[in-house]
Structures are given as C-alpha cells and as structure tokens.
Specification:
- The chain has 289 residues and is mainly alpha-helical.
- The protein folds into two domains: 136 residues; 109 residues, no CATH class.
- It contains eleven helices and no strands.
- α3 runs antiparallel to α4.
- The protein is elongated and about 80 Å long.
- The two termini are 42 Å apart.
Length: 289
C-alpha cells in the first residue's frame, strides 16, 4: 500500500512537468533576447539582470527535468524518443549550470575574452539543445507528425519522409469488395482514429501500451492484456467496450475532456469489427473465427 501511494504521488507530481517546463523555456528565450539587446546597446544594469535570469533558468530547468523523470515512469512512450527527450532535457540543465559558471567568471576575471566567448558559445548551444528537447517532447505528446501535419507537401518532404505503409494488394488479404484490409482501414477507420485517438495511441506515445496508428497494431493487446479487437465479435472486443462506455467513466475512450466519438463513428467502427473479412491475413484473437 505504501509503495502504491508513493508511486501515485510520483505520477501526480510528474504530470506537472507539462506546466513547469514552460518556465525554463521562457527564461532562456528572455535571456537570449536580453543578450542580443545588450550586444547592440550595452548596459551595466541589464548585464546584472542576466545574472538573475541565469539562476532562474538553472532552477526551473532542474525542476522541469526532475518532474519529467517522474512522469516517464508512467510508461506508454516510445523508448527511443523518450531517451532523446530525457538526455536533451538533462543537457539543457547542464548547460544552464555551465552558463552560470562562465557568467560568474566574466565578472570575477574582469570580462576576459576566453570566458566571454565560452559564455556566448554556451548560450547558443543552450538554445539549440532546448529546441531539440522541445521537439522530442512534442513528439511524445502529440506524435511525430503533429508539427508538419498541415504543412505544404514540399515542407513535409524536406523535414521528414512519411513512414506511411503502402498497402499491398495480395490475394490472401483481398475481401469480397476487392479491397485489402489495409486499404479499408486507411480509408474508413484511420481518419476516425487519427482525429480522436492517435494523439495518445501512436508510435511515440502509447497510453496503456496500445497503438491505433495502423491495422496490425490495433490487434495487439496493450497493458490490459485483453483482446482489443476480436474479428466478427465487436462486443467481445475491448476496444468496442471502451468506446461505448459513459464518457464520465474513468475507463472511457476517448477520456473525459477529449472530443467524443460521434454516433456515426461508433457505428462505423463496430461494423468494421463485425466483418471478419476486414482482418483476413492478420493475426486474430479468436480461435473460432
């Protein structure tokens, strides 16, 4: 009981990471703008102000990093993206400390060139690493395509190659209608999941260790170990059970506060699961199918 209480408290405080992390971002951006202004219009008073901003950067970054470590224990995140976010975040913390130390040396050593140069380099590195840390954090929260979802195609191609499966038309996966299960999923079901579910159930963020970003993953049980989809048996499927729960139920999906599925979307998903031909060629959960 004591261990469970400690774990719950850890996750409770960890979720404040999303609130606190805006503080170091704000302080670091303010510091950068202040240093740019001082470069063009030197001011002893403003130079002293940077000292306090640096301390605020270091303290707020340390707190945000600690809360982030607590939050990571909740699980359900892509390991590689999580590790990149963790270490870039820690690097931001280390760089705020070294920025403080080099800034102190500037004052103590009468502004020696080596310390001024080290401080400026440190500041550039700090802003750069913070940008990457924020990018990886955004991927964990919203998915890797969130930032460029509505960007022009040329920008999408420049930033990253889309990892979209190209459905293969094979006889073993062809339904009566002449469409493969992959094609049916992408055309009829994925748009619903993308709008209502994928922010929490994608390759980067997997709440309940469950993904809905492609057909194969929808069939793999998550943390509950209950079959999410039982082809031909919608109301034996845990996914169907969860989306039909009262929105106020703590197990309901999407959870309270998120956009609910419409009646039309509920019917479409149910009918999709009811037709076992929509899953031909994929691993299924029920032996009597």
């Amino acid at each position: 009981m004591l261990a469970e209480t400690a774990s719950n408290l850890s996750l409770f405080f960890g979720r404040f990471h999303a609130v606190v992390l805006h503080c170091p971002i704000g302080f670091i951006v303010a510091l950068l703008l202040l240093e740019i202004y001082i470069f063009f219009k030197p001011s002893k008073e403003l130079i002293k102000l940077t000292k306090y901003l640096l301390v605020a950067c270091a303290l707020s970054t340390a707190l945000a990093a600690y809360l982030g470590i607590l939050l990571a224990r909740d699980g359900g995140y892509d390991t590689n993206t999580l590790e990149l976010h963790r270490w870039t975040g820690i690097s931001v913390g280390v760089l705020t400390i070294t920025a403080n130390l080099t800034h102190i040396k500037i004052f103590r050593e009468s502004g020696k060139f080596i310390f001024r140069s080290a401080y400026k380099f440190n500041l550039v590195a700090l802003v750069s690493i913070m940008t990457f840390a924020g990018h990886y954090g955004g991927n964990l929260t919203h998915g890797s395509q969130y930032l460029i979802e509505y960007a022009p195609e040329t920008i999408k191609k420049f930033i990253s190659e889309k990892n979209t499966k190209t459905p293969e038309v094979e006889d073993s996966k062809t339904t009566i209608a002449g469409n493969t299960p992959d094609e049916i999923f992408i055309r009829d079901i994925k748009p619903i999941f993308k709008n209502k579910c994928e922010k929490c159930h994608n390759g980067d963020k997997m709440k309940g260790d469950y993904r809905l970003d492609d057909l194969e993953n929808t069939l793999i049980a998550g943390e509950s170990e209950e079959d999410p989809i039982v082809p031909g048996y919608p109301f034996d499927s845990n996914l169907i059970r969860l989306i039909f729960l009262d929105p106020e139920d703590e197990e309901a999906m999407p959870p309270s506060g998120k956009a609910s599925l419409t009646n039309e979307e509920l019917v479409k998903i149910t009918q999709w699961v009811r037709d076992p031909s929509n899953f031909v060629g994929f691993e299924i959960a029920k032996d009597d199918f």
